[in-house]
Amino acid sequence: MDKKIICLGIESSCDETSAAVVDSERNILSHVIYSQIPEHQKYGGVVPELAARAHILVLDDVIRRALADAGAGISDLDVIAATAGPGLIGGVLVGWMGAVGIAQSTGKPLVAVNHLEGHALVPRLKNGGTDAAVEFPYLLLLASGGHTQILLVNGVGKYEMIGQTLDDSAGEAFDKVAKMLGLGYPGGPVVEKRAAGGDAARFGFPRPLCDKPGCDFSFSGIKTAARTLLEKEKATNDQRPMTNDFVNDFCASFQAAVVDCILNRVGNAMRDPRVIAAAPRMIVVAGGVAKNAAIRGGIERLAAEHGMEYGAPPLNLCTDNGAMIAWAGIENYLAGRVVAGPVAPRPRWPLTEL
Ligand code: KG4
Ligand code: ZN
To answer: Which residues of 177-209 are buried (b: 16+ CB within 10 A; e: fewer)?
Structure first.
């Protein structure tokens, strides 16, 4: 058997500063996540400049704790990996330059990880998706704050886009609707919680593109419908605060529309000739929105209907985290994809351009 490899992974592309130590036998040896959410909450969303400054303040400590929890020193590491994009460029620069510093001072190999590839590969970590390793090729629904895509994952660095959003991401729709309702940031978890107590049939949200063939998404119409419905409610309700029932029903109706759209598109993807030709055994969900139980449950049912297996990372590996970056670091290192010269971090970096 090949020698076991140990990788330090650093994530700083949005509002989590995270570092983890992961080994090539798919184990997470340590995992530290410092969430900046409380610092951004009062602004109703992530403020890029504040995020970058907060990453600077905590990065050293987060890395030190990850190493200490793993019982490892820097000399024990075989590889250093960090997110080099896509994301908020100020934050990406902080984590990336930290990783470059460690790699250059120790002479260790460095991997520039695409953040989306971190989400895409994390189901292959032990207990990341199923008990068995998730094998290539697999079909992936990647739904996060910035992206909503269906991909065929053919291997490390080998992604085929089957469908993607034409406008907003699903996560953005959750966040915007929560903001409209005054539910704070991030929107996904609170909308899901309120939806659990609501009547999904009360409000008629549209299901954009669902009557059309294809695998692309569109969520902006759902967002506009939310704004229109809320304006109507405010006008007819003489500007009185929204009742709990109203908010719960609104969240339930909105979430049902998003879930229907996602299931419709993933169902089409399972019948897509490119997917049928690749014959993936498994559909896997990833990204922050994949924490949503209605989406997870829906995809699991769809998988059963299509004779596919279903995999989903545990909830703490769906939202941004360092373990997924460390794991993508290991997979890339083993595939020989290490940094050979200067790398400019990228705010935009599609998975199809690795
Ligand atoms: O993957 P992630 O942590 O960050 C990005 O790479 O964008 O995803 C964050 C997104 C946010 O839009 C958040 O509202 C959404 O994931 N999210 C959820 C849930 N938990 C987080 N959306 C729906 N239901 C949830 N339970
Ligand atoms: Zn992410």
So the answer is: bbebbebbbbbbbbbbebbeebebeebebebbb
Ligand 1 pocket test: pick from 180, 291, 325 the residue with the most ligand atoms within 8 Å of its Cβ: 291
Q: What angle do CA 55, 56, 61 make, to 5 degrees?
A: 85
Beta-strand pair 309-311/282-286: parallel
Nearest ligand, measured from the Cα of 143: 1
- pLDDT tens-place string over residues 152-164: 999 999 999 999 9
Q: Is 255 in the pocket of ligand 1 (CB under 6 A)?
A: no
Residue nearest to atom 14 of ligand 1 (CA): 188
From 2, 30, 7, select the one nearest 76 (Cα to Cα).
7
Among protein residues, the one whose CA lies closest to atom 18 of ligand 1? 188
- Among the listed residues 266, 289, 260, the one whose alpha carbon sits nearest the alpha carbon of residue 191: 289
pLDDT in tens, 111-130: 999 999 999 999 999 755 55
Query: What are the tens digits of pLDDT across the range 167-196?
Result: 999 999 999 999 999 999 999 999 999 999
189 within ligand 1 shell (Cβ under 6 A)? yes
**Sequence-ordered strand ranges (E) for 97-230:** 110-114, 138-143, 148-155, 158-164
pTM: 0.96
For 177, list phi and psi in degrees, rounded to 5: -65, -40
DSSP element (H, E) containing 156 = none
The dihedral over CA atoms of 116, 329, 319, 27, expressed in degrees to the nearest 10, equals: 140
d(CA 147, CA 13): 14
**Shortest-distance atom of ligand 1 to CA 116:** 6
- Here the tokens at position 47 are 């403020």
pLDDT band at 292 (very low <50, low <70, confident <90, very high): very high
